[in-house]
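**User:** You know discrete backbone vocabularies at least as well as I do. Would you mind producing a protein record, from residues through to fold? Write it directly below this note and I will take it from there.

**Assistant:**
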Amino acid sequence: MKKLTLVFAALAATLGTSVVHAQSSAALLLKPWEASGLVEDSTSGYLMDQGHVQTNGNHFQMSVLESQGRVRLFPGHEASPRFGYDVTLLNTHTSNPGFHSQLLDASFAAGAFVGIYQGWVFGVTLGLGYAGNSPFAEGRGWYGHEDFVIAKKFGEHDAVGIGIDYDGHRSYLPDCPLPGLAYSHTFDPHLDMVLGAPLSSITWKPTDQWRFYLDYLILTDFNFDAGYQFIKHWTVFGAFETRRDQFYITELHGHNRLLYGQKRAEAGIRFDPRPELNFNIAVGYAFSTDFRSGWDYRTTNPYLYASNVPYVHIGCDLKF
């Protein structure tokens, strides 16, 4: 149970979880830890320039706070039980009538590896979350999230993962358990690849200075990050990412939710004064920002489309 990096990679792709962002779903088990890590936290703020509603020209401005973290009970033990959280807060300012000024998605989960049999590793996560316009007051906003995963490492470089994911908050097919399958291979110390459905990912470190990361979740998310360390402790980077989230709001009845989507491209600089701490600041451009109504993205109706705007991104990552 001590050297499960390939197993984690296969499991991550099995359940279609971006291990960069989510900490209250399958990634709670799957994202590898630093050798003696106890706590991890990543917090980012996005301050976007003033824009407008595309259909009528009304003023629209948004700021975003994203925070994820996790803690494990026994540092140094990869199979230790652990807890994680995810928070996304959208603050909006608009003259468009009836649009909510605050939307919150917050979730918490616990996970553990429950056994190993003939080389197959078994893991379970259980989570609870809330996504709505009135913090913890909209009854329909509560949702559950459970994962069951198994994986096995073959040789030094290969692993296979299989899993079932139930997510009451998913942007496609919520409340429907979905299976996943993935194959992970480490070509050399510089290149890791996971091929699967619904997620595939690549991590490439061609030199000590360069690092590239990409993951793709079918029909939902695409994330890319490239960084170059030009001097010790300082890295320039560029990134492209998509964001989606869903909220229950008072005005939408029944199973209809407010579906939020946005794409971001940015470039900036990252400073890591210590191995366990880094700060980053970037400027970027947010586009394809839209809010739609519907149960999921298979069938939607327009709700509000915002103009493209520049933004400033400030973030901090902490590990100890």
The longest helix spans residues 5-14. The mean pLDDT is 88.
